[in-house]
Design a protein that fits this description.
The chain has helices at 3-21, 29-39, 54-62, 74-83, 120-130, 148-156, 164-172; strands at 44-48, 66-71, 89-92, 104-110, 131-145, 174-183, 188-196. By secondary structure, it is α/β, with parallel strands linked by helices. Bound molecules: S-adenosylmethionine. The site of S-adenosylmethionine (SAM) has 23 residues, from α1, α3 and β2.
Length: 200
């Protein structure tokens, strides 16, 4: 099965209990909303892989951003649609196929890159094409496994993590802020990143 299909299938099963379970391990999502609110509260912002709309809801409450969300999974988007104000545009699409005909001031990816680690180079290239010059990329994601047992558990959930992701972001964007944190005393690490697109 292609990775894209397996992500859609996985979230078909997970969507029903996603919002209850994820606060237990998708750390840093509240922090990244604060970073965005501090830097560009009125911008056109795209969340790629918006899922059930957890961050878009918080961004709508805490910023004046014009918000758009895209996601591969129709099941996750259905939940987002129910909880979000109608002025937030939602589209079911792969990031790689999304062609809005405009560029954004900011693109946010929260726990998306580690779902398809092998595609990160292409995905980052696509994000750059969607960003204005000096537009911002915001990323929160897993950074490093704390143990071999935890690696096995995460791989079973289709998640692969490694320090290469943050290195790649830093080589493709001008780093504005970054923070690496430990979860549960070091079972894993996650990072929060803000970079600027220095290309046109
Ligand atoms: C772990 S969830 C994160 C959802 C949300 N960003 C959050 O933090 O709660 C990852 C989401 O990314 C979506 N996704 C993964 N790869 C994608 C891609 N290439 N294009 C669009 N959405 C994608 C999945 O369908 C899923 O809803």
């Amino acid at each position: 099965m292609e990775k894209k299909e397996s992500i859609i299938k996985y979230y078909k099963k997970q969507s029903g209990f996603y919002d209850i379970t994820r606060p237990l391990f998708l750390f840093g999502r509240g922090e990244i909303v604060k970073w965005i609110a501090e830097t560009n509260p009125k911008d056109h912002l795209l969340e790629a892989g918006c899922g059930t709309g957890h961050l878009l809801k918080s961004l709508a409450k805490n910023t004046d951003c014009v918000l758009t969300g895209i996601d591969l999974s129709p099941d996750m988007l259905e939940i987002a649609q129910r909880k979000l104000p109608t002025e937030i545009n939602l589209h079911q699409t792969d990031l790689e196929d999304f062609n809005p005909g405009k560029k954004y001031d900011a693109v946010l990816l929260s726990y998306v890159f580690t779902l398809d680690f092998a595609k990160n180079v292409e995905q980052i290239k696509r994000v750059k094409q969607l960003l204005k010059h000096n537009g911002r990329i915001y990323v929160v994601d897993f950074h490093r496994y704390g143990s071999a047992l935890y690696k096995r558990y995460m791989n079973w959930h289709g998640i692969e993590m490694g320090v290469e992701l943050l290195q790649l972001l830093e080589s493709e964007f001008a780093t504005k802020r970054k923070s690496i944190r430990k979860a549960y005393g070091g079972v894993w690490e996650y990072f929060i990143y803000e970079g600027a697109n220095v290309e046109d």
